[in-house]
Amino acid sequence: MGDDQLLRQARDGDRRALDELCHREWRPVYALLYHGVRDRAEAQDLTQEVFLRALRSLDRYREGAAPFGAYLATIARNLLRDRWRRKAPGFVDLDQLDYVDNAARAAGGEADPLERLLADAERDRLCRALAALPADYQTVIHLRIVEGRAGAEVARLMGRSPDAVRQLQHRALVALRAALCEESPR
User: Which CATH entry fits the domain spanning 94-182: 1.10.287.110, 1.10.357.20, 1.10.3490.10, 1.10.10.10?
Assistant: First the structure.
């Protein structure tokens, strides 16, 4: 039985159809979330949340607009974005970027207070510029640059082709550069 027919039956209250839909889509949704959080328990919790949100909005899902699996993947990606935004101010955890003064770290000492102040100001400027970007740009920067994931993996997580991810990353970096130039201290 196809997803569209199962969806119609689930909307009509058929519990078996709803169970079948969830059973079919559970693994792909879980896999997407697990790749995003790298924690089984959290991925399971997020997977349950995806299905709860999908069930609450089942009447708004339009058949033929996108496959049901893609609809669930969109909900999952939105949950991941929300998680990343809650986790770090400005969306990206800049400590993962090793933005701290590498020379001071290599010397085994602390950065000079003025250098530390300048580095903190630069970090804040970068956070503001990243936060001003569209969500897809933030996501591709986070996955490709902060987490260092491969383009094919990011494509799978974002539901796009590898070429589309490369283009999106390029546009995101151009937009980030422009945002940083606009905010550049004068």
Answer: 1.10.10.10
